[in-house]
Amino acid sequence: MVKQNPEGNPHTPDKTQDWNGLRMTKQRRVVYDILLESTDHPTAQDVFLQTTKRMPGISLATVYNCLEALVGHELVRQVNFDREPSRYCPNLSEHGHFHDVKTGRIHDVTFKDGAKLTDFLNLPEGTEISDLEITLRGTLPS
Amino acid sequence: MVKQNPEGNPHTPDKTQDWNGLRMTKQRRVVYDILLESTDHPTAQDVFLQTTKRMPGISLATVYNCLEALVGHELVRQVNFDREPSRYCPNLSEHGHFHDVKTGRIHDVTFKDGAKLTDFLNLPEGTEISDLEITLRGTLPS
DNA sequence: AACTAGAATTAGAATTATTCTAATTAAACT
DNA sequence: AGTTTAATTAGAATAATTCTAATTCTAGTT
Fold it and tell me: Shortest CA distance to B96 belongs to which of B137, B128, B127?
């Protein structure tokens, strides 16, 4: 349960919440909210279009800055498909991405319980993995 | 065994070889050779620098065109790490990539024999996978 | 409540990998 | 040899992202 902000004004950032050490400014909050509400792995442009509705006058540079800050503090993940614009994902649990070429949509793909990467890949003993990215392209059953 | 070109001139493209339907021009051959000899997943720039040594006057646009043609005919793979410049890989067997953050080098990672992706990922029955990309970042044991 | 120092935001310029364009050259096919 | 088609080329264009320098905001302090 998140502690409530005494003023109760939804537009005033809650100073009691710990955002992994990130100062939650108005702009960052809006960007973050939009990502939390999103289901479609939006690009920076997509996010910018949404933020503009709630906060006219926000600049694209700020959206990029906010996204970078959120990624840096591990509140969202940045996902890249080939050379397409980066997409952003509020799902922090370990997962991969499936790019449906029929619909163009991107779906999260969870790992099976107990699945160990070392059962799958030939990695030297003692390899330290800091980041894992699994991307699939194809079509889902219709 | 590849059929020999009757002239025996190493610079004359061998017209009898099947390159997955790709016409093997002088430029494409040089770019392809450089990739086959490479072990370090070069970028288009890297390849361009090498080609210039063997074929001064080749243009960067041509290198890009050649790489695109080679990728399109599945003679090489294009590999992307985040938003970095694309890299090219002559290894066509199914494999992933390990980005060693200490050295900056990229290593191929093979899959264990008999490892099935469906043992690892929660995918709907009947999903058709046309392309799979696995990228790891971390450090190798020293 | 004003003061200050540091951080965040902003508009617009700059960067950079890549793609496009239009002209030239080379190859393949009568 | 002549024609057609494809490949190469130089340079311009594009587009996502980052940078710059100025302004504004915030948090902490008086």
Answer: B137
Residue B12 and residue B42 in one domain: yes
Q: Do residues A116 and B127 lie in contact, with contact meaning Cβ atoms separated by under 8 Å? A: no
Sort out which chain B residues have CB atoms less than 8 A from A80's CB and list them: 80, 82-83
Q: Are residues A6 and A68 in the same domain?
A: yes
CA distance B39 to B44: 14
Q: How far apart are CA A23 and CA B4, in angstroms?
A: 68
**What's the N-to-C CA distance of chain B in angstroms?**
40
> Stretch B51-66: mean pLDDT, rounded?
97
Which residues from chain A sit within 8 angstroms of residue B131, using beta carbons? 136-138
Claim to verify: residue A58 and residue A84 sit in the same structural domain: yes
Q: Could you report the per-residue pLDDT of A22-75, keeping only the tens digit for each?
A: 999 999 999 999 999 999 999 999 999 999 999 999 999 999 999 999 999 999
Q: Residue A101 in contact with residue A135, Cβ under 8 Å?
A: no
For B27, which DSSP code? H
Q: The sheet that has A106-110: what strands, in order across it?
A: A106-110, A95-100, A128-139, B128-139, B95-100, B106-110
> What per-residue confidence (pLDDT) applies to B16?
52
Tell me how far apart the alpha carbons of residues B93 and A46 are, in angstroms, rounded to a whole number.
36
Q: How big is chain A, counted in residues?
A: 142
A110 CA vs C24 C1’ separation (Å)? 53
Structural domain containing residue A132: 93-138
